[in-house]
Amino acid sequence: MTRLNNKDYKEAKKAFDREGYVVFEDVLSGNELTEYLNALQPFLKKDIKGRNNFEGHKTNRIYALLNKSEIFGNLVDHPLVMQFVRDELGESALLSALIAINLLPGESVQPWHTDDGYIGIEMPHPSFGISAFWALTDTNGENGATEVLPGSHHWSKHKLTKYIELIDSDAEGVLGGNLGHAPDTRKKVVELNEGSLMLAKGTLIHRGGANNTDRPRLIVSPQYCFGWARQIENMIASVSKTNAMKLSEEVRRLMGYSIHPPFIGYVDGVHPNKLLGNFKH
Question: What's the per-residue H, E or C state across 122-158?
Fold first, then answer.
């Protein structure tokens, strides 16, 4: 699957706007999955675990993926994802974060959060971003599939306060969300076959589930924001110029080699692409 035709996109967009998320099954081929898994293996072997219950004390999180292998650029600018990103966030949208998340056996449930809560504007507010969840292994209710609260991006302030802090951008360990705890009677477990994709609005309340199996579950999550917003991960600092030149022009634009009108993002008074135009590799 690449792009949706106009009719299918309109139907998917309706569901996305209504529920706050949408799922596409079997987007990646078996060969593609093998390539992504192979690219991650050297870093998974390091077995570096999270620093708090948000990252996950029994979870491997791998950051700066575009600096580790250019193959991950194919997930970042996948045509299906970009249909939604451009429609929701505009032509100047940025890649805010790109993380591989490997839930190990025994990992506990994550706190409820939103992925654009880091911007620090009190909810409710319009979505400031989109998160993609690429399943590199099957994810289900037993191994920690993402749990969502459908429609929570439409909730009133009163209902939101039962699940999250409305503004808590200083909370320790927050990487793209506001921490909170509440009963899970409204939750839906979004089970994905390997190779499948979920897209979620930045304001959708969600969390990673608990892994009660004896095998890890692995996803890669690119997160996108408006061009005027600060990125969670400083992409230009995270990716060397040598490795940036291996990526598509679209991915480099999403990293921040681009301008949000009228001139947000310039470097020494000129377009940031000048940094790469003069670079010899």
Answer: CCCCCCCEEEEEEECCCECCCCCCEEECCCHHHCCHH
Burial code (b: 16+ CB inside 10 Å, e: under 16) for 188-221 equals: eebbbebbbbbbbbbbbbbbbbbbeeeebbbbbb
* Residue 122: CB atoms within 10 Å: 12
pLDDT digits (tens, 9 = 90+) for 203-234: 999 999 999 999 999 999 999 999 999 999 99
DSSP E strand boundaries for the chain: 21-24, 59-62, 94-103, 129-135, 146-148, 188-189, 197-201, 206-208, 217-225
Nearest CA to 223 out of 126, 123, 26, 84 is that of 84
Six token digits for residue 59: 């979870």
Q: Strand, helix or coil at 274?
A: helix
**Which positions ≥6 away from 269 have C-beta within 8 Å?**
none
Longest dimension (CA), the chain: 56
At residue 39, the 3 state secondary structure works out as: helix
Q: Where does the pLDDT of residue 161 fall: very low under 50, low under 70, confident under 90, or very high at 90 and above? A: confident
Using the 8-state DSSP alphabet, how is residue 181 labeled? -
Q: Could you tell me which of 51, 87, 27 has the C-alpha nearest to residue 220?
A: 27
178 phi and psi, to 5 degrees?
-105, 130
Distances (CA, A) of 235 to 59, 97, 98, 238, 239: 22, 8, 9, 5, 6
Phi–psi pair at 192, nearest 5 degrees:
-125, 135
Pair of tokens at residue 154: 């439409």
